[in-house]
């Protein structure tokens, strides 16, 4: 016999009296497998819940439609990429849960049912063999007690026969009867002896077979079952580690992706985007000059001058109170935004209008593509009438034509607004100066109400119109009362030209004090822009007025510049 088998047999024989303990141990092993299966199942549920929470978190912080403009910043794109990577990261944890369910939990559940069935069969065979041995032992004991009883009965019958045979008073017939009874008992004892001996031999044989063959075989099967259970337990633990190890490269790629987008953040580029997004297109306002109210003290005091001064002062205060503040301090309109985006600064308005035009052009292109496709379909129907009725396409073609016409009209409307904005965009030049009311009055310029027109012309709250209010119309009214009689003759004289200008865009001077010009027209400049956005020009001796400074290109004479500079110095010293 193989030495290994002999050694295994000897070990098993050592447990032949520990059948109940082995049964408890194997049941504990199966319970442990079920416990481990439950552990893996709970771990997979944790992974699923974790992945679900990560996905919900990523979805929660995904950019909304109104936040799509944030993608122009690198740090926003990096965060959105991180959310996408976290979504993939959550998917890997779902893979962990799925692999644990299929490779560990399902396999262990199936194996647990198999090992329970196998264990039940093995211990059923063991109990059956044990019961057979116990039954044989009981039968042997019964044979043994019968043999013992028959031997005792034979001894008593022999003693009775010998007593009867020795007694002279007993008849011969009684002696013979006692002798026969003794012989019968001896025969019964002999038969019981033979039966006991035969069954004893049989029992010993069955007992040897039970302890050296049947039980060792059963124990070997139980041992193999237990070793297989332990081996499967080790394989499950190894699979448990492999399931995690398999997704580590992909998780590493997710983390590498987050690192890459983090390194791609460009602070300077983002700050440039902020500047590009929010630049208004306004030029900074000019310097505010000193207003010398002490000039009025030099005048001759009279009832007329005092009355006029008071009247004019009230008018100035009323006109100033109507003027809007400088554009950096104007509050945004909280009402509904106008269709032409006039509530935005020039640069922002231009971008919005351009984007709107691009969207409309895309819609027009889609409609035209549909029209071309339907036209080709109609041509096919005309050539092959069996494929369809050509007239069935006409209603749709008519509807598309109307849509295209509407879209083109809307595009023209927005293009007109865009052209207006681009024409009014300020050109970089020397910073203008804001002059006082007194200085403008002395130089026969329009009153300070023009500042109101400038505010409407270039303020962020959308006042880009060619029709100034009644405040602007008052700019051409001479303030002779404040200027005094000494300036009456100066107003009637024709002011000299200080340069020329070329109209860059057409302008309809519909308001009082303005003049209409056509694109490319050459005019004389008689008064340059003093920071209010208007330049005074002359066409001939009879036609002169104000035009927007951004609509003309001014060419000042060098002598005129010097004259104006000296005149300002003279006036300031005189004041």
UniProtKB/TrEMBL annotation:
<keyword id="KW-0206">Cytoskeleton</keyword>
<dbReference type="Pfam" id="PF00611">
    <property type="entry name" value="FCH"/>
</dbReference>
<dbReference type="InterPro" id="IPR057870">
    <property type="entry name" value="HR1_TOCA"/>
</dbReference>
<keyword id="KW-0472">Membrane</keyword>
<dbReference type="GO" id="GO:0006897">
    <property type="term" value="P:endocytosis"/>
</dbReference>
<keyword id="KW-0963">Cytoplasm</keyword>
<feature type="domain" description="REM-1">
    <location>
        <begin position="343"/>
        <end position="420"/>
    </location>
</feature>
<feature type="domain" description="SH3">
    <location>
        <begin position="496"/>
        <end position="557"/>
    </location>
</feature>
<keyword id="KW-0175">Coiled coil</keyword>
<dbReference type="InterPro" id="IPR001452">
    <property type="entry name" value="SH3_domain"/>
</dbReference>
<dbReference type="InterPro" id="IPR027267">
    <property type="entry name" value="AH/BAR_dom_sf"/>
</dbReference>
<dbReference type="Pfam" id="PF25610">
    <property type="entry name" value="HR1_TOCA"/>
</dbReference>
<feature type="region of interest" description="Disordered">
    <location>
        <begin position="300"/>
        <end position="324"/>
    </location>
</feature>
<dbReference type="InterPro" id="IPR036028">
    <property type="entry name" value="SH3-like_dom_sf"/>
</dbReference>
<feature type="region of interest" description="Disordered">
    <location>
        <begin position="425"/>
        <end position="490"/>
    </location>
</feature>
<keyword id="KW-0446">Lipid-binding</keyword>
<feature type="coiled-coil region">
    <location>
        <begin position="350"/>
        <end position="377"/>
    </location>
</feature>
<dbReference type="GO" id="GO:0005938">
    <property type="term" value="C:cell cortex"/>
</dbReference>
<dbReference type="InterPro" id="IPR001060">
    <property type="entry name" value="FCH_dom"/>
</dbReference>
<dbReference type="GO" id="GO:0005886">
    <property type="term" value="C:plasma membrane"/>
</dbReference>
<dbReference type="InterPro" id="IPR031160">
    <property type="entry name" value="F_BAR_dom"/>
</dbReference>
<keyword id="KW-0728">SH3 domain</keyword>
<dbReference type="GO" id="GO:0007165">
    <property type="term" value="P:signal transduction"/>
</dbReference>
<dbReference type="GO" id="GO:0005856">
    <property type="term" value="C:cytoskeleton"/>
</dbReference>
<dbReference type="Pfam" id="PF00018">
    <property type="entry name" value="SH3_1"/>
</dbReference>
<dbReference type="InterPro" id="IPR011072">
    <property type="entry name" value="HR1_rho-bd"/>
</dbReference>
<protein>
    <submittedName>
        <fullName>Formin-binding protein 1-like isoform X16</fullName>
    </submittedName>
</protein>
<keyword id="KW-0254">Endocytosis</keyword>
<keyword id="KW-1003">Cell membrane</keyword>
<dbReference type="GO" id="GO:0008289">
    <property type="term" value="F:lipid binding"/>
</dbReference>
<comment type="similarity">
    <text>Belongs to the FNBP1 family.</text>
</comment>
<feature type="compositionally biased region" description="Polar residues">
    <location>
        <begin position="460"/>
        <end position="477"/>
    </location>
</feature>
<feature type="domain" description="F-BAR">
    <location>
        <begin position="4"/>
        <end position="270"/>
    </location>
</feature>
């Amino acid at each position: 016999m193989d030495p290994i088998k002999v050694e295994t047999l000897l070990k098993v024989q050592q447990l032949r009296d520990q059948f109940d303990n082995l049964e408890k141990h194997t049941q504990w092993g199966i319970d442990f497998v079920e416990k481990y299966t439950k552990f893996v199942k709970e771990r997979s549920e944790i992974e699923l819940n974790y992945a679900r929470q990560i996905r919900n978190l990523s979805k929660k912080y995904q950019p909304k439609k109104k936040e799509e403009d944030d993608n122009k910043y690198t740090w926003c794109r990096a965060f959105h990429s991180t959310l996408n990577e976290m979504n993939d990261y959550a998917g890997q944890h779902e893979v962990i849960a799925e692999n644990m369910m299929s490779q560990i939990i399902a396999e262990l559940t199936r194996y647990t049912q198999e090992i329970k069935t196998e264990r039940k069969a093995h211990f059923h065979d063991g109990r059956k063999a044990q019961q057979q041995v116990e039954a044989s032992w009981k039968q042997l004991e019964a044979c043994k007690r019968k043999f013992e009883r028959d031997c005792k009965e034979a001894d008593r019958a022999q003693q009775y026969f010998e007593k009867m045979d020795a007694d002279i008073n007993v008849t011969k017939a009684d002696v013979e009867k006692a002798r026969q009874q003794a012989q019968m008992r001896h025969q019964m004892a002999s038969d019981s002896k033979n039966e006991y001996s035969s069954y004893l031999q049989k029992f010993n044989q069955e007992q040897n077979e039970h302890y050296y063959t049947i039980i060792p075989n059963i124990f070997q099967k139980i041992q193999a079952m237990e070793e297989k259970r332990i081996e499967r337990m080790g394989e499950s633990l190894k699979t448990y580690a492999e399931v995690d190890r398999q997704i580590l490269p992909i998780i590493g790629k997710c983390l590498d992706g987050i690192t890459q987008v983090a390194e791609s953040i460009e602070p300077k580029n983002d700050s440039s985007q902020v500047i590009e997004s929010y630049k208004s297109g306004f030029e900074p306002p000019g310097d505010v000059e000193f207003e010398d109210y002490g000039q009025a003290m030099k005048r001759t005091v009279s009832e007329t001058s005092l009355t006029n001064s008071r009247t004019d002062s009230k008018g100035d205060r009323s006109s100033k109170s109507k003027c809007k503040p400088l554009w950096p301090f104007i509050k945004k309109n909280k009402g509904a935004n106008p269709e032409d985006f006039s509530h935005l600064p020039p640069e922002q308005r231009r971008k919005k209008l351009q984007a709107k035009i691009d969207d409309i052009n895309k819609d027009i292109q889609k409609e035209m593509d549909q029209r071309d496709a339907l036209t080709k379909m109609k041509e096919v129907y005309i050539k092959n009438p069996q494929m369809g009725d050509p007239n069935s396409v006409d209603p749709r073609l008519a509807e598309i034509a109307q849509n295209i016409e509407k879209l083109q009209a809307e595009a023209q409307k927005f293009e007109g607004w865009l052209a207006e904005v681009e024409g009014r965009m300020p050109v970089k030049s020397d910073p203008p100066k804001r002059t006082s009311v007194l200085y403008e009055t002395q130089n026969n310029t329009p009153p300070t109400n023009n500042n109101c027109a400038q505010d409407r012309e270039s303020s962020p709250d959308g006042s880009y119109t060619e029709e100034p209010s009644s405040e602007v119309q008052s700019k051409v009214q001479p303030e002779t009362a404040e200027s005094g009689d000494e300036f009456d003759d100066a107003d009637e004289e024709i002011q000299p030209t200080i340069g020329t200008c070329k109209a860059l865009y057409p302008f309809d001077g519909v308001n009082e004090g303005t003049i209409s010009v056509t694109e490319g027209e050459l005019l004389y400049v008689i008064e340059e822009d003093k920071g209010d956005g208007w330049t005074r020009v002359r066409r001939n001796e009879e036609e002169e007025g104000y035009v927007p400074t951004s609509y003309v290109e001014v060419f000042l004479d060098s002598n005129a510049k010097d004259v104006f500079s000296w005149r300002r110095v003279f006036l300031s010293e005189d004041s």
